[in-house]
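Recall the central idea of this unit: under ordinary conditions, the amino acid sequence of a chain determines the structure it adopts. In this exercise we apply that idea directly, starting from the sequence alone.
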Amino acid sequence: MMSKTPQGASHREISEWNGQVRVIENDLLAEETPVALIYNGISHAVMMASPIDLEAFAYGFSLTEGIIDDPAQIYGIDVCPVELGIEVMITLSNRQFEHLKKRRRTLVGPSGCGLCGAESLTQVQQNISALTRQKFQVSHDAIQSATDQLSHHQPLQQSTGAVHGAAWCTLGGQIIDVCEDVGRHNALDKLIGKRVAQENSDQELGVLLMSSRASFEIVQKAAMTGIALVVTISGPSSLAVDLAVESGITLVGFSRPDRHVVYTHPHRVVEGDDLQDFLIDSPSRQNSHR
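Accordingly, the structure predicted from this sequence is:
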């Protein structure tokens, strides 16, 4: 009996050589689709993405790109399949739409490259406030526990081997939400968008775990939405580390079994016996989404 095909995957016939013979069989591939984000009838961005969780993607992209600073500024989202891909029609408040038109840019790029199409270098970095008021700690064991669980929460990756995952974890290392996409930045936008739709999610401190390297834009998206601890499976870029220092984010890379590297603000990551109770201040950030 054939197992259920996960969302975001489709079957293709392949020819596999196993070292001795050629075998013809069916394989599951990750779907990759052009997704146009259209605000008040005007196309703003076209991203290559997995065709799942697109409403969450619209919310997350809008927040992390600084198009909105509150989900209530989006009045409606319609996901419309078309011949060449998918159009996500976003109805934006008039005030935010006027703001968007002032900083208008065309963003057409491959998956995982969210800065492609910026008109100038001044558009690369958003205005971000430091997250230094988020005083909390996690243990090394909690980071290891979350890392060990990640693959079990990625059904599309297990089926296709071709997508990234963005996971939200408790301070104790339990994974409570995961979004997948062919692009790591898209996966993160989907996770952020999904979480802002949940009641009191902005009040819940936690850890962002990415199945990818730590790029500048992953750190920037985290900072834009008040995430103060980011863990990635692979290493960071130099600019990602610099931005994490500046924005007050604890950045952990190369999270593998029995190993990880803390690159910035290491005071938040301690041995389990050294965990302390802190008075948790609300996040200090430029864009509050509630």
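DSSP finds seven helices and 15 strands in the chain.
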